[in-house]
Write a sequence for this structure.
């Protein structure tokens, strides 16, 4: 079995009222208005042709098999002000 390392880095323009919130495990998530929280994580997408439309699987077994391969996940959040 080989190890696959994936780094996810996004830059987004978000509303000023979004905040960072820390979970009990020390991870950060985004706090949105109205007491909603958002976490951005990987979701496997599939296609029969790489030039066609990609979509998530409808099979929970396939999704669980893929997610079971993930040994750890790290996503960091930071606001940058200029």
């Amino acid at each position: 079995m080989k190890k696959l390392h994936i780094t996810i880095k996004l830059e987004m323009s978000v509303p000023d009222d979004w905040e960072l919130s820390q979970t009990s495990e020390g991870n950060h998530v985004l706090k949105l208005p109205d007491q909603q929280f958002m976490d951005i994580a990987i979701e496997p997408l599939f296609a029969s042709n790489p030039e066609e439309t990609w979509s998530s699987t409808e099979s929970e077994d396939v999704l669980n098999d893929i997610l079971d391969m993930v040994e750890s996940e790290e996503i960091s959040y930071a606001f940058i002000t200029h």
Summary: The first strand starts at residue 19 and ends at 22.
